[in-house]
Amino acid sequence: MTRDELEHAIRAACDVAGDTAVYVFGSQAILGQYPDAPPDLRQSIEVDVAPQTRLDRVDAIDGSLGELSQFHTTFGFYVHGLSIDAATLPTGWERRVIRVCNAATLGKTGLCLEGHDLAASKLAAFRDKDRDFVRVLLKEGLIRARTLIRRIGTLDLADPERRRLREWVSLTAAELIAPPRQV
Question: What kind and span of H or E run contains 74?
Answer without folding.
Answer: helix 70-75
